[in-house]
Amino acid sequence: MRGFEKLVLGWGDLHLDVPDAPSMLVGLLSTRVGLLDRSLFARLPEGLLTTLHGSMPDGASKDVLSLHLRQLAAFKAELVTHLETDLFGQRNVDALAAWLRSASRPAFHHEVVLAASTMSLDSQPPSATFGTACMDSQGMVAEKRGLVLSMLQQLHSPQEDWVFDEADIQLGFSRLLGSTEQLAQARPEACEHLVQLLTAAIKQEVLSAEFLRSARRMRFGGPVGVELIRKVQRETPMHSRRAWGSGDARQFRSEVRDAVLEYFDARSLDELAQIVDELHLSEKEQAHFLQKMLVIGMEQGQSPAALDAMQGLMGTCWSGDVVQAAFDRLRDIAQDLVLDLPHCREQTTALVAEAVSRNLLDQSYLLLDGTTVV
After folding, report:
1. CA 341 to chain CA mean position, Å
2. Domain range list for the chain
3. What one-character-per-residue DSSP string does 15-59 give?
4. d(CA 360, CA 321)
5. How far from the centroid of its chain's Cα atoms is residue 209's Cα?
6. pLDDT at residue number 1
7. Nearest Cα to 107, choosing from 147, 49, 57, 59?
8. Is there a contact between 201 and 148 (Cβ–Cβ < 8 Å)?
9. What integer pLDDT is reported at residue 7 of this predicted model?
10. Cα radius of gyration (the chain)
């Protein structure tokens, strides 16, 4: 599903290279193809659907889309008015909720999340009724951010019969992240405001840290969006850090192996660094990760690539002490590897020698390894 959202966020760029991209994206939701939930159609961006409408021949399908676009445009126009008056003007979430229920357009509720969040990034008052006494631009943004988060917390709850469901929250924020490159060009200061909004949303559990991890991996918002998410994750370490307990041992081993195999397949240090960063490993876990990379490297003839990763990400993802600990672990388990890797003694000796030549290990380690029965 998030892969589809990634395509939706980049539909404009796709359209430049593939003019038929909008109809192809919508085709994934058709009954004939049946790859995705058809209800997603109503949540597609207005611009994408408008472009699709312009390319359609006259007929019943175009008429249905015309009606949908009129309804969406009318809803968004009314939405701005109600956000300015009800939420930001009167600070009355109940009034906004009453309008949303009377409008009866739940498929458009992600637009509320997107519009309210976007308006909260602007340091200007959204309406003449918004109190500005003794409030500088930072105070204005903080006040609006607080109102938006209070609205999301109240309306994304069983007490309000889930006016906003989880899809509304995630789609609203994913569309917001998708606009970060344009936002950075138009209002650079708004990016920092967005970091503050997302940080508060994570801390108040309006948005999950898992959503940010996925959005970062899918690169929502391009390089600007990825860097913005990194900042949020640094501000929310208790939420973003994955604590690997004893009950997670099997999953931990699985994720480590998947990450190593993905690196050997793509040979991308940037992608590997991103994955390691997302795992938030302790030093002991980092040593296990590198030891596993060395073993899999020997199994698949990828030892040079394993050392490339160690060397390329030294000081970024792990320290020299962690690298040495990984080789210590490899030496300790070498006897157990003989059945699966008959030449592991020779391979391990060659790995150590190469690591020394790359300054990953001290020269003294080579002497120590030579006196150890492997």
Report:
1. 38
2. 89-240, 261-370
3. HHH-TTHHHHHHHTTSTTT--S-GGGGGGS-HHHHHHHHHHSPSS
4. 10
5. 9
6. 59
7. 49
8. no
9. 83
10. 26
Asked whether 152 and 113 are in contact (CB, 8 A), the reply is: yes
Predicted local confidence at residue 11, as pLDDT: 85
Contacts of residues 153-161 at CB distance under 8 Å and 24 or more positions apart, as own/partner, are 153/204, 153/206, 154/93, 154/97, 155/93, 155/97, 155/100, 156/206, 160/97
Q: Residue 110 is which amino acid?
A: H
Q: What is the pLDDT of residue 144?
A: 95
Q: How far apart are CA 364 and CA 299, in angstroms?
A: 27
The three-state secondary structure class of 106 is helix
CATH topology match: 89-240 vs 261-370: yes
Q: What separation, in Å, do the N-terminal and C-terminal C-alpha atoms of the chain show?
A: 48
Spans of the chain below 50 pLDDT: 32-36, 243-244, 246-247, 371-374
Tell me how far apart the alpha carbons of residues 244 and 255 are, in angstroms, rounded to a whole number.
Answer: 11
Distance CA 26, CA 151 (A): 32
Backbone φ and ψ for 313, nearest 5 degrees, come out as -110, 10
Q: Residue 120's closest CA among 54, 63, 221, 195?
A: 195
Residue 155: name the closest of 85, 76, 92, 84 by CA: 92
The encoded tokens of residue 62 equal: 């175009």
Place of tokens 């307990």: 245
**Quick count: other Cβ atoms within 10 Å of Cβ 89?**
19
Cβ neighbours of 17 (radius 10 Å): 7
Quote the Cα angle for 221-222-225, to 5°: 50
Tokens 């020269």 correspond to what residue? 363
Residue 18: partners with Cβ closer than 8 Å, 6 or more residues away: 24
Q: What pLDDT score was predicted for residue 48?
A: 93
Q: Which residues pair with 318 in a beta bridge?
A: 314
Domain covering 261-370, topology: 1.25.40
Structure-block tokens of residue 240: 């973003």
Q: Per CATH, which fold does 89-240 belong to?
A: 1.25.40
**Pick from 59, 9, 328, 372: which is nearest to 180 by CA?**
9
Strand partners, 314: 318
Place of tokens 């950075």: 184
